[in-house]
Amino acid sequence: MTNRISARSAPLAAFASPRARPEPTVLQELIAALAPHPKGLRRWSVMRAIRDNRVRECRPVSLKFEIEVERVFRGACSDAPGGNPGAPFYRPEGKAGEVWAVHTAHACHAQTAAGGQE
After folding, report:
1. Where are the domains of the chain?
2. 23-114 has which fold?
3. Residue 9's pLDDT is what?
4. CA distances (Å), origin 5, targets 10, 18, 60
């Protein structure tokens, strides 16, 4: 008996594989979520946008998802203690609550400097 099931499903394997396309880094996801909003977004809106995008693309949302996103934001925030003034993210002044924003010019540089790494 031949293995007809695997022979038929072989062309579909590339679509079913979660690694078929390179996954964006958390840094890239943050930039993509914040770029359309020059005045910034509240933290929970950023998390929701990234989570919804991952679900839409059938990518996993880990149990430590929010911790990972927040770690990357704080590590690349110009407002952090000892933060780099050329960092891609900042917290806009005069906004109530935790609002995150992106410096679009700095973000382009950060993406190329990261080289696809978090």
Report:
1. 23-114
2. Arc Repressor Mutant, subunit A (1.10.10)
3. 47
4. 9, 20, 27
Tens digits of per-residue pLDDT, 46-57? 999 999 999 999
Q: Would the pLDDT of 8 be above 80?
A: no
Beta strand segments in the chain, E: 41-42, 89-90, 99-102
Task: Extract the tokens encoding 26.
Answer: 């958390």
The answer to whether the CB of 103 falls within 8 A of the CB of 90 is yes
User: Tens digits of per-residue pLDDT, 29-46?
Assistant: 999 999 999 999 999 999
What percent of the residues of the chain are helix, what percent strand, and what percent coil, each to the nearest 5?
Answer: 50, 10, 45
Contacts 24+ apart (CB under 8 A), 78-85: 78/103, 78/106
